[in-house]
UniProtKB/TrEMBL annotation:
Residues 1-19 form the signal peptide. This is Small secreted protein. Keywords: Signal. It comes from the Eukaryota.
Length: 173
């Protein structure tokens, strides 16, 4: 008995389709973040003391219980948040702090710390997701977490003090 050619090709196709492992959840995971400007993301301003919660709120779209399935686009977004917040720190906050004095300088410094909390929160989340995906660097994660913890501590120590928000022209990629 001869098997018709169509059945042979159908059998070969189905065998190939099921033989290759497909991670449907990762493939189906859509990016949760969209392009944003620095000014949209910024948590600087108002009063110091709550930067940790503000940063987590800005980046709350991530499923913290499933970091292994964070799409590459969201990892890129988190990296981009780090980059534009770092640019704001060096190109906006640092020169303004250098030119200021007294209460204005303190408020700018508090805004800079808030900005650093946002930057480092994005970095730590990215590194945790990469680790969950098997691409982690434990030493780098530990170093960045230490920096984040230090800046959160500084922000909480300044709780209730004025914090200055600076506008900065940059966008995530």
């Amino acid at each position: 008995m001869q098997i018709p050619t169509i059945f042979f090709f159908l059998f070969a196709f189905l065998t190939a389709a099921f033989a290759a492992p497909i991670d449907m959840e990762r493939r189906a995971a859509a990016a949760v973040f969209k392009k944003q400007t620095y000014n949209q993301l910024s948590i600087s301003g108002g009063t110091a003391g709550n930067a940790e919660a503000q940063a987590l709120a800005k980046l709350s779209g991530l499923n913290m219980n499933d970091l292994a399935n964070v799409p590459k686009a969201d990892l890129d977004f988190l990296n981009s948040v780090n980059q534009i917040a770092n640019q704001a720190e060096t190109e906006a906050f640092n020169p303004a702090i250098d030119a200021a004095s007294g209460a204005a300088k303190t408020a700018l410094q508090n805004g800079k710390i808030q900005n650093k909390v946002l930057k480092l929160t994005a970095t730590v989340l990215k590194l945790k997701a990469q680790a969950a995906q098997g691409n982690g660097d434990a030493a780098k994660l530990a170093a960045e977490q230490k920096k984040l913890d230090n800046n959160i501590k500084l922000d909480k120590a300044a709780a209730g003090q004025a914090a200055t928000k600076l506008s900065f022209d940059a966008s995530t990629s």
